[in-house]
Write a structure and sequence with these properties.
Elements: H1 2-21, H2 28-47, H3 63-72, H4 74-80, E1 82-84, E2 87-89, H5 91-108, H6 112-128, H7 130-140, E3 143-150, H8 156-163, E4 170-177, E5 183-190, H9 195-206, E6 211-216
Antiparallel strand pairs: 1-2, 3-5, 3-6, 4-5
Helix pairs in contact: 1-2, 1-5, 1-6, 2-3, 2-5, 4-5, 5-6
């Protein structure tokens, strides 16, 4: 039993180190504690009532205590989720806590190979998938160009001619007078375009004779 607890601490630390690397509040110690605690709960559930099993009319379900870990760990996960403006942060850390709780239960029940495989998978997902996720989010993020053009010389047709096949990626196109009566201020927002593609479009717009300035955001 002590060896199982130590193994749970080790596996929890592997996942916790990845979260600690990113300076999340739920880092190394939190993941270790969750994994060890889940392991102990599983041990209690499996072996803690052996002395009363032989008693007449006593029927025990060793899975009932362990089942409460799955729902009970939610309060820790909720504590790691934050809303910053319009962006939700901490969902991945909450999921990793839930995952190490499952690892602890598996080790407590003696399922060492599944626990090891799950630890490897979780670390691989947290560390290995993140670069692809960030690349995809960067591509899906909205990019805005702010143009200063000669009055009445920029229309949606003119913009479509400059953007070519990427015209379908224009989310918003607004034109309003600027402080200079001879100029218009134009705001164009693109979605599902990489920063490189937006920079290419900005270069084409700058080359147009009626465009005075282009600023990227």
């Amino acid at each position: 039993m002590v060896a199982r607890l130590a193994l749970a601490a080790l596996f929890g630390s592997v996942v916790g180190l990845e979260r600690e690397r990113l300076l999340w509040a739920a880092g190394l110690r939190t993941h270790m504690l969750v994994c060890v605690g889940s392991c102990l709960i599983m041990l209690v559930s499996a072996f803690g009532f052996a002395d009363v099993l032989g008693t007449e009319h006593v029927v025990l379900d060793p899975s009932r205590i362990a089942a409460q870990v799955v729902s009970g760990i939610g309060f820790l996960g909720a504590g790691t989720i934050l809303l910053r403006g319009e962006v939700v942060k901490g969902l991945t850390t909450a999921a990793s806590l839930w995952g190490v709780a499952a690892i602890g239960l598996a080790i407590g029940s003696g399922l060492y190979v599944p626990a090891l495989a799950t630890t490897a998978l979780i670390v691989g997902i947290l560390a290995g998938v993140k670069p692809f996720e960030e690349r995809w989010r960067e591509r899906m993020r909205a990019h805005t160009l702010r143009l200063t053009v000669r009055r009445g010389m920029m229309s949606i047709d003119t913009l479509q001619a400059a953007t070519g096949e990427r015209a379908s990626r224009v989310r918003t196109f607004t034109v309003h007078p600027s402080d200079d009566p001879a100029l218009d201020a134009v705001t164009v927002t693109f979605v599902r375009l990489s920063r490189t593609s937006v920079a290419t479009i900005a270069a084409k717009l700058r080359a147009m004779p009626d465009v005075v300035a282009v600023a990227e955001e």
